[in-house]
Write a structure and sequence with these properties.
This protein is α/β, with parallel strands linked by helices. The protein has helices at 7-10, 18-28, 49-56, 94-98, 143-146, 173-177, 196-206, 224-231, 249-254, 280-289, 300-309, and strands at residues 64-66, 87-92, 112-116, 124-126, 147-148, 151-152, 165-172, 193-194, 217-221, 243-244, 259-262, 292-295, 313-317, 328-330, 334-336.
């Protein structure tokens, strides 16, 4: 399929020299020290009380939408870097209660269960300790001083537990660009690199409720997850995917968003845009911008609603679990319209 081009974005990508591109981009787009030397929140600092009041005023109908994929053994993971799907086990059941095996008096019984899973196996946030750039973590700290075998000692995901309540904006790039790319389903093809030009075109097509403001969380729909619902997981986990181009780093920086989440496994376009690379936009976004990244979100029901009523902004609550020292967390994001 023919991919739309963004000539301005090509300047930022030296396809044969990933390191030089990363070095230049990190030098030009960096938030170290912006909120002081001890900061642990990064771009979540853009969310303040006034921002939450603004977001609350968007609620009109009271409709709610979960933006989470399921957490079960049928999930997308294939074992790469020991990432497995959740294992859910019952420790007490109704059968135990019926047989009187639980030791409780006067007929009361109950059920208990537990779950074992990597923290980034399904819908999740990448925390600020998740990715390093040339040995540096967020705000210029050395990676080894931040994350040890005891976890993230400084920017653990628990620091964000009460922070992510803000205005969310759906950018349905799949629906906006899909028809131009020959997709009647409103989906971008695997390997499609979304540039700032594509983002701005989507905003223009969707209208004023899509304007991006400081402190927003952008929920970007590519349509890849919708494709998995029809065709199965395939190589969703780690394979080719539509996603953000490396050249969007300046847009991510200048827009002053608090976070951005996509419906793909890895947020950025795969294969990456260099001859030899692994997730170079992560290398800019997390340790240099301090930007929270969400992956494997499910915007399908929300997107259908937005396409119907034309309201693309909403109150979003997306708190990570306060797991002390974790570098990522499962999340069940809720959009309220």
């Amino acid at each position: 399929m023919t991919q739309l081009s963004d000539q301005a974005g090509e300047v930022a990508i030296q396809r044969g020299n990933t390191l030089a591109s990363v070095e230049a981009m990190a030098a030009a787009h960096n938030n170290w020290g912006r909120w002081g030397p001890d900061d642990v929140l990064g771009t979540l600092n853009f969310i303040d009380e006034a921002k939450r009041v603004e977001a609350a005023q968007l609620v009109r109908s009271g409709q709610t939408f979960s933006l989470s994929q399921p957490f079960n053994t049928d999930g997308p993971q294939k074992g790469w870097r020991r990432r497995t799907n959740p294992v859910h086990t019952m420790t007490d059941t109704g059968t135990d209660a019926e047989f009187g095996d639980q030791g409780f008096p006067h007929g009361i019984g109950g059920a208990d269960d537990f779950i074992a899973m990597p923290l980034q196996c399904s819908t999740q946030w990448d925390g600020l300790g998740h990715i390093f750039d040339r040995g540096n973590a967020w705000n210029g700290r050395r990676a080894g001083q931040v994350v040890t075998s005891d976890g993230d000692q400084i920017t653990g995901i628990q620091t964000a537990a009460a922070r992510i309540v803000t205005r969310g904006v759906l950018l349905d790039v799949g629906r906006a660009l899909g028809p131009e790319l020959g997709s009647d389903e409103g989906e971008l093809p695997d390997g499609f690199a979304i540039t700032a030009k594509h983002i701005e075109a989507t905003i223009k097509k969707q209208g004023a409720s899509s304007d991006i403001r400081r402190g927003d969380v952008v929920v970007l729909r590519t349509g890849q997850y919708a494709r998995t619902l029809r065709q199965g997981w395939g190589d969703y986990a780690g394979g080719s995917a539509p996603g953000l181009s490396f050249s969007t780093a300046p847009w991510l920086h200048m827009s002053e968003i608090a976070g951005i989440a996509t419906d793909t496994w890895g947020f950025e376009v795969r294969p990456n845009e260099f001859d030899v690379a692994f997730q170079p936009l992560h290398q800019i976004a997390i340790p240099n911008l301090g930007l929270y990244l969400g992956e494997m979100w499910n915007p399908e029901e929300l997107a259908a609603s937005c396409a119907t009523d034309g309201q693309y902004d909403f109150l979003l609550t997306a708190a990570p679990l306060p797991i002390t020292g974790a570098v990522g967390s499962p999340v069940n994001p809720i959009a309220v319209k």
